[in-house]
Protein: Alpha/beta hydrolase
Amino acid sequence: MVRRIEVTGAGGVRLAAWEFTDPPKSDGGPEDGERRPGVLLLHGLMGRASHWADTARWLGARHRAVALDQRGHGRSEKPADGPFDRASYVEDAIAAIEQLGLAPVTLVGHAMGALTAWQLAARRPDLVGALVICDMRASALGAASQREWADWFATWPLPFATLADVRRWFGEEDPSLERPRPVRGAFFAEVMAERADGWRPVFSRRQMLTARETWVTDAHWEELAEVRCPTLVVRGQDGELGRAEAQEMVRVLPGGSYAEIPDAGHLLPWEHPDAWQRAVEPFLRTAIPG
Structure:
């Protein structure tokens, strides 16, 4: 079962959240009427809450799983003037946790959502019981990376005539691809909406660059070291987070552990959902018993 929930974020920004629940299982999970531990799922830049549907469904057997459309994304508000800074994203997630009564929450974040998650855990340890970081670097990427993104956005052949064209371009024809990735095409098809002239993204590319600019040139090691809850760092073998940096992140984290998924890229939870579940589920059973 899926239901939409409204959350009021920082500065009154309207946020959409989605709660996924399954009937209780007979495997030691919560019984009917028993409070389930809360999980908040945070997508990455350009993502949306619905991307977490499969993950949220297996989490829902033991947890109260909620996925948030972050500001500027999905069905949440996209204020013309922002702000899209790090503090706003963190405060929005705090608002969701507090308004939905999820604490002590497990935060599961992908890419930018993972950064939001560990910044929140460092700032409000009272709200967070465990953390899963999926393919997000703690090191600065530099100004050149931001220029590359701006150039990449300019290559998008908008509008797309059909969703099939979206899937094909992002999965096969995108000049940034080294090899075809059909899952990537499906991922981007989910963030498109039909307009009068064709299919366009549900987000503003200008706002995405603004949001990215607030974290891409900074390193985030100090905040990572302030995280005190059990934390799992997950990377794909071909993802953006390198093995050496991921293992250094685990070393810096007081309660860090590590998982790697072979033959997976940046979108590892969607490329290899079974391997993703095998990596995350045992960690959560240990970190959040009951």
